[in-house]
Write a sequence for this structure.
């Protein structure tokens, strides 16, 4: 399996560069986790990396296979980053029941991670995979 990361688009790099060092390093770690998860998750295929709402966003380019995963940092909360999911999918509520102790959640759209402490990469990878496959899995469950 090839874990080579694609180059970061200029506009996404500018957003990462605007973050303090620890936050930027955490965001880059999460970016690598998103690409690695997409690569090993059946049905996801290549990802598009772009800005959505001023945040780095990762979306399967395969039509209707999944929902975007976004990464964010805010100066008002400098010691944490967030992994954001579409709030109307119900994904975060599902993740909350699957990983109540492993991950910290915010509302219906985010997993909150500290910039300087370890996090449960396996649990987070499961959440990322579920988002990237959201539409495929929804269609399958309706069949």
């Amino acid at each position: 399996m090839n874990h080579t990361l694609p180059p970061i688009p200029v506009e996404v790099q500018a957003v990462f560069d605007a973050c303090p060092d620890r936050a930027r390093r955490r965001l880059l770690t999460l970016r690598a986790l998103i690409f690695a998860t997409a690569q090993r998750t059946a049905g996801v295929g290549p990802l598009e990396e772009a800005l959505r709402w001023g945040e780095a966003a990762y979306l399967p380019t395969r039509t209707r296979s999944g929902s975007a995963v976004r990464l964010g940092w805010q100066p008002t909360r400098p010691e944490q980053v967030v992994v954001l999911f579409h709030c109307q999918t119900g994904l975060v509520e599902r993740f909350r029941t699957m990983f109540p102790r492993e991950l910290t959640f915010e509302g219906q759209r985010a997993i909150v991670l500290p910039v300087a402490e370890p996090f449960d990469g396996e649990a987070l990878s499961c959440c990322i995979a579920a988002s990237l496959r959201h539409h495929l899995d929804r269609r399958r469950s309706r069949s």
Q: What stands out?
A: The CA atoms of residues 94 and 127 lie 9 Å apart.
